Amino acid sequence: MAVPETNGARPKTGIKVIIVGAGFGGLTAAIECVRQGHSPVIYESFPSLKILGDIISFGPNAGRIFARWENGDIARAMRKISIDLQAYGFNIHKWDTGEVVINQKSPPRDETAPVFNGHRGELHEIVFNYAKKLGVEIVLDSRVDNYWETEDAAGISLGDGTRVEGDVVVGSDGVRSKARTLVLGYEDKPKSSGYAVWRSWFSNEDMLADPETRQFCENGDTFNGWIAGPDVHFLFSTLKGGSDCCWVLTHKDEHDIDESWSFPGKLSEVKEVLRDWDPLCTKIISKTPEEKLVDWKLVYRDPLPTWVSGYGSAPGHGRICLLGDSAHPFLPTSAQGATQALEDGVTLAVVLRKAGKSNIKGGLRAYQDIRYERVRKVQKTGETTRDMWHNTDWEKVKKDPQSIAFPREDWIFSHDAEKHVEEVGDEIIAKTSTSVEQQA
Ligand SMILES: Cc1cc2nc3c(=O)[nH]c(=O)nc-3n(C[C@H](O)[C@H](O)[C@H](O)COP(=O)(O)OP(=O)(O)OC[C@H]3O[C@@H](n4cnc5c(N)ncnc54)[C@H](O)[C@@H]3O)c2cc1C
C-alpha cells in the first residue's frame, strides 16, 4: 500500500491492527495507524456506507486532528458542509418568554483547530473516503462475532466463521459494544440516564414559506437555544446556508432504554412537552415531517474499570482494547463524544509506534493511562451543562447572562492529543512496561 508522503507516514512498524467498527473512532484509529506506520484493517457490520444520523459536533481538539490530514484538504471539505456561525453566533432564549438572554459569539476561526457541526453521515463519508484513499482496507458487511487472544497474537471471528489474526484488536464498535463484554469479562448493563432526546433533520422549504420562521433560513446559518424549561432544553440550528435545519430537545424520560438512533418519535408528544413554551418553539416543531423524528433514549454507563484486556481486574492477554463509545459513551450536552473518540485514535496509534511490536501490552496500557482521567473529566461536563440548563437560576442570569452560556473549557479545547502523547508517551510506556513484567 503506497502512502503519499504528504501524510507524514513513518517507517513501517510491522504491527497489524484489527479495528472493529468504521465509526469516527475506528476510522480515525485506522488513519492515524497509517500515519504512524502500522497496518490497519477495519471490519464493519454495515453492508454499505449510508448517510445516517443528524447533527454531530467536533470541537477544536478534533479539528486539530482533522487539520493534519491531507494537508488540510479534509478539514476544508468538512468546512463546506458544516454550520457557519461567524455572523450569527448562538442566541440563548428564556424558554417561556422567548426573550434573547445572551448572544454568544463564535470564537474567531482557527484553521489549525477548526470546529465542525454538521450532518453526521455527510461528515462521516468524507472521513471514510479519506481512509480508503490512504489504502486502509475496510471490510464491510462483516459482523464480528467473537474476539480471541493469546500471548503472541489477537484476532476476531466473523459470522461466516472466518478467523482473522493480528497483533492488536481495537473494539471501536460503539455504545452496544461486544468487545466491552470480552475486555471486562462481564456484561456492563446500560442504565437509563433519566433523559431522552427527540431529534430531527430536514430541509427548510416549509420554514422559508412561513413569515414567522423565515428569519432562521433566509440569511444563512443560525443557532438558537431555548433554555431551562422544567428539565427540558431545546436547540435549533439551520445549516448549509439555511437550506437544512435540525433540532434536538432533551427531556425527562424514565421509559425503555434503547440506544438505537432510529427509534421513531411522536410529534404530538413533543408538542405536549412544549405546551407552555415560547410559541415559536411549537411553530418550529410543527414544520417537522413526522417520519424524520427520532426518539433517542440517553443511556448512562458508569466509567468502565478498564479499557484493555489483562489490565487491572480484566481477564486476557493485553492485546485487545476499547476505543470511542465502546469505552465511554457521552451525553450530547458535552458535545465531545466523537471528539474524544478521535483523541483516543491518535493516542493509540502513537503509543503503539513508541512501544513497538514486541511491547504491545505496555503500549495498550499506556494508551489507557494517558486517556482515562481526561475522558472521565470531559464526560462529567455533559452532566454539568445539562444540569445548568435544566435548573437555571434566572435571577442570577439577569445579573450575569454569561452564566448561562455554553461552556467553552480551555482545558478541553486546547488539548493537542498528538503533541501530548508525543510528550508523555515514553515515560508512561516505561511505567506500564514495568507493570507488564511484574505481572508475568
Ligand atoms: C448510524 C449511526 C448514527 C449516528 N448518528 C449520530 C448523530 O446524529 N449525532 C451524534 O452526535 N452521534 C451520532 N452517532 C454516534 C457518534 O457517531 C458516536 O457517538 C461518536 O462518533 C463515536 O464514534 P464511535 O466510532 O466510537 O462509535 P459509532 O459511531 O457508534 O461506530 C461504531 C461502529 O461499529 C460498528 N459495529 C458495531 N458492532 C459491530 C460488530 N459486531 N462487527 C462489526 N462492526 C460493528 C457499527 O455499525 C458502527 O459503524 C451515530 C452513530 C451511528 C452508528
UniProtKB/TrEMBL annotation:
Q: Which GO terms describe its molecular function?
A: FAD binding; monooxygenase activity
Flavoprotein as UniProt keyword: yes
Domain (FAD-binding) spans 125-378
InterPro entries from the entry?
Answer: FAD-bd, FAD-dep_Monooxygenase_BioMet, FAD/NAD-bd_sf
Identify the keywords attached in UniProt to this record, alphabetized.
FAD, Flavoprotein, Monooxygenase, Oxidoreductase
Superkingdom is Eukaryota
Q: Which family does it belong to?
A: Belongs to the paxM FAD-dependent monooxygenase family.
Q: What is this protein called?
A: FAD/NAD(P)-binding domain-containing protein
